[in-house]
Specification:
This is YbbD head domain-containing protein. The chain is an alpha+beta fold and 118 residues long. It is built from three helices and seven strands; from the N terminus they run αβαββαββββ.
Length: 118
């Protein structure tokens, strides 16, 4: 009986997640949802960005997702980033937030965000 109760509790807890997933067709829609004001994406993302997908984990204060930027804005965006030792990987830090961006296609960027809890 105790094992059955414990199993139910574990299943309930594993189903509880504070990950909020959203999709925005345009930068303007993401901006209206305050994605940039809340720090989930940096303000260096150009306003031409589209197909923005985010998965924000409120418990761990992290995020991952992707978006699309076409040329010439893609080259301008990359110029604002710092290259890492990995091919097509860059990072950007602002305050207590660090984003790692990967260029996975000619115009698709994936990212992860880690925030230092203060």
């Amino acid at each position: 009986m105790k094992i059955k109760l414990l199993l139910q509790i574990l299943l309930l807890l594993s189903g509880c997640s504070d990950v909020v997933s959203d999709e925005y067709a345009t930068y303007k829609l993401a901006q209206q949802a305050q994605l940039f004001d809340r720090g989930w994406l940096p303000d260096i993302v150009p306003s031409s960005a589209t197909q923005i997908e985010v998965n924000n984990d409120l418990d761990t204060n992290t995020s991952e997702g992707s978006f699309r930027i076409d040329e010439p804005q893609l080259t301008e965006f990359i110029a604002k980033l710092t290259p890492t030792s990995s091919k097509d990987e860059f990072h950007f830090t602002s305050g207590d937030s660090t984003w790692v961006f990967n260029i996975v296609d000619d115009s698709v960027i994936t990212y992860t965000l880690n925030k230092v809890k203060g």
